[in-house]
Design a protein that fits this description.
Blueprint lengths: L54 E5 L4 H12 L3 E6 L4 H13 L4 E5 L5 H15 L4 E3 L16 H25 L5 E5 L12 H21 L5 E7 L5 H7 L20 H12 L10 E4 L7
Helix pairs in contact: 1-2, 1-7, 3-4, 4-5
């Protein structure tokens, strides 16, 4: 945990990866079983009313970046619908508690984003339980490394696209029908869209698609007063990495190739989502905000 409000050297704000980071869990992975635990901002994030009265749907809200965003959104005054896999219930319960401790409403709706009906239910649940939706944060993602295309199955390729791209499409389609002017959509790309790793062929391809989808949709819905933007994280310490996202043997140097020389933490990503969800970014749409430790992007 680091004080996000104290000026300090970003190189030293969080520690570098060490051999302790070398671990593996069955997919989808639980944050409660990681060592060291990622910093979700629960001990430091201070809200200032940027999202007072807002109604958000957050996918991947149980852990990692989605968890940090749920905490930040709640402390900024938003009620939230939390989407996550049923296997991630242990992590999700902690997030529900943290949202409620912030005085906001938490609606937990586990399910599989590869199911179009579930995606539609998430938006319908927000309308029913929260009275509407004005923020959609698509953060959940599937990442499984495969070293050789010969071993990349059609089943995995399809599941990666269904989770990362199709679900985004289904959720955006349903949400736009319910959103009023001033609403925002925030999708999640990656440094992999610009510097694709050879072992992440399917994942990197989806992240590039997310950028393009978002830029197109932003233009389409601008006249409705809806903004669409993207956050593109670099290497961030989350359960995604330890549940097949990266080979175990490379995690001891995870993030070392960034100019800052360390992995990012979910708490460092959340403010980017808050900015793009808030009215402070009213003239920003179709943009990708890169939070990647200094790695150059187009």
């Amino acid at each position: 945990m680091s004080d996000q409000y104290k000026i300090q050297d970003p190189v030293k704000q969080y520690g570098k990866a060490t051999p302790e980071f070398e671990q593996q869990q069955p997919s989808p992975g639980l944050e409660t079983k990681m060592h060291p635990r990622p910093d979700d901002g629960a001990g430091t994030y201070q809200g200032s009313g940027k999202l007072t009265g807002r109604k958000a749907v957050i996918t991947g809200a149980d852990s990692g970046i989605g968890r940090a965003v749920a905490i930040a959104f709640a402390r900024e005054g938003a009620d939230v619908v939390l989407a996550y896999l049923p296997e991630e219930e242990a992590d999700a319960k902690e997030v529900v508690r943290l949202v409620e401790e912030a005085g906001r409403k938490a609606v937990a709706l586990p399910g599989d984003l590869k199911d179009e009906k579930y995606c539609e239910q998430l938006i319908a649940k927000a309308v029913e339980e929260l009275g509407g939706i004005d923020i959609l944060a698509n953060i959940a993602g599937k990442q499984q490394f495969v070293k050789d295309i010969a071993d990349l199955t059609t089943e995995q390729f399809d599941a990666t696209f269904k989770t990362n791209v199709y679900a985004m499409f289904w959720l955006c389609k349903a949400a736009v029908k319910q959103m009023k002017p001033g609403s925002t959509i925030i999708n999640t790309s990656s440094i992999q869209a610009y510097e694709p790793a050879p072992i992440l062929l399917d994942y990197a391809t989806t992240k590039s698609a997310i950028n393009t989808f978002s830029k197109s949709l932003a233009q389409q819905v601008a006249a409705k007063g809806i903004r669409v933007n993207v956050v593109a994280p670099g290497p961030v310490w989350t359960p995604l990495q330890v549940s097949g996202g990266q080979p175990e043997e490379v995690l001891g140097e995870f993030g070392a190739k960034t100019p800052l020389g360390r992995p990012g933490q979910p708490a460092e990503m959340a403010p980017a989502y808050v900015f793009l969800a808030s009215q402070e970014s009213s003239y920003v749409s179709g943009e990708t905000l890169n939070a990647n430790g200094g790695m150059p992007t187009p």
